[in-house]
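## retry 2 of 3
previous attempt timed out at serialization; input unchanged, resubmitting
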Amino acid sequence: MEENPWFRDAQFAKQIAQKIKELATENGDVKICHVCGTHEWTITHYGLRSLLPPEVEVIAGPGCPVCIIPASEIDEAIQLAQKGITITCFGDVLRVPGSESSLLEAKADGADVRVVYAVSDAIEMAKMEMEKQFVFFAVGFETTAPSTAVEALGKLPEKFSFLVSHRLIPPAMELLLGVDDLQIDGFIAPGHVSTIIGLKPYEVFPKVYRMPTVVGGFEPNDVLMSIYMLMRQISQGKARLENEYPRVVKSEGNPKALELMNRAFKVSPGSWRGIGKLENSALLFRDEFVGLDARVKFDVQVSEGKDVLKGCQCHRVIIGKIKPNQCSMFLKTCTPAKPVGACMVSSEGTCRVWAKATNQNEK
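## retry succeeded, writing output
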C-alpha cells in the first residue's frame, strides 16, 4: 500500500461516500464489480461497504490469479513432481486443490516442491543443481507474465523449463457480462494489471457493452473515488472508460513489458476454475520457445480436472454470484487452515479475505 495520508483520510472518505449516496438516490439499485483480489482486500479490510448506501453493492469477480487456476493445471504440476522433477512456485500455489490433491500434499509425499519469491530464484537454484530438472510453475495475470517472459527470452540453464498458467483479465470481464442472473452496472478494472496493459483493452466495455468502467487504485479513497466515478457515469447515462489511478497507470501501459510478452507468448484459449474455457484468455509460449514448455518437454498428460469439490461454492464466489458467507462450508469445513476451495487459499482469494476479516471482528 502507498504511504500518503490523503489516500486514507477519513474525512475525505466520508465526503466521497456522501456524494455516492446522493447519486444512489437517483439511480436505484446498482451493482459494481471489481476483478482484483487487492481491491477486495482493501474494501473488506477498511470496511468500505459499510460506507455505501444499501442501493450500491460491490461484488468481487475473478481477480485472484491463484483461485482461477484450473485443477487440471495443478494436476500437471503434481504429475511433473511425481516424475522426480523439481517444481518451483509461489507460496500461495502450494495449497491450491487439484482434482485429488495439492502440491503441498505431493511435497509431503516426498516430491521436490520448493517455494520461491521470483522466477530468478528458481533459475539460481537450477544453476546450483545442474543435475536436476527444474520447472517453474508460472502463475498470474498480465502483472506477472512479463517476469516470466524476460527470463524465457534470456539465457537459462539447460534443464530449466516452465509450466505456464498465465491468464488475461479483459476476456474474463467480458464473460461476466453474459452470465445469467448476474447484474453488473459498472466495472472497477484492476490497477496492477492496468499498469502493464494500459487502458485500450478496456475500451470494449463502454463502446460495445455500454458498461461504465473505471481503472482504480488500491487505497481506500482510490476505491471510493472509483465507485463515485462509476455512479456519476450511471447518473449521466453515459458509459466511459476513466482512469482513477493516473499516478501509476498510463494510457499506453508499459510498452517494454508488452513487447517482452508479445515476443515470448501467443494468446490462446484457456480454462478458468469456476468459469470454464475462454477464448483468447491464456498465454502459451510461441513455437520458437517450445523447448521451454514443460508440458511438451515431459509429455504431460492429465485427464479433465475436477475444479469444484462436492458442497464447495467457490465457482459461484469467483464470478460474484454469491458472497463467501453464503457458502455452507465457509469457516466450517472450509477454513484458512484447511481450505477446501481455491478461494480460501490465497491472501487475494475472496473467501480468505472475508475469513480474515471475520476472525478479526470476532476477537
